[in-house]
Write a structure and sequence with these properties.
mainly alpha
Length: 60
Amino acid sequence: MKAEQDFNKLSDEELVKTIVSSNDTLLFEILYDRYAKMVYNKCRGFSKRDDEAEDLAQEK
């Protein structure tokens, strides 16, 4: 299996294909890390409260 650094270099599409073909759900962490802050910030814009934004983004 590739080192985590190699997986970080993959595009989202390539990463999803790798997840599907290898059935390695731990690779979802890489996708999560790429988008978690963006999703939280969008939720923060909707809610105006940190705790609600965290709930909406499921970030805890």
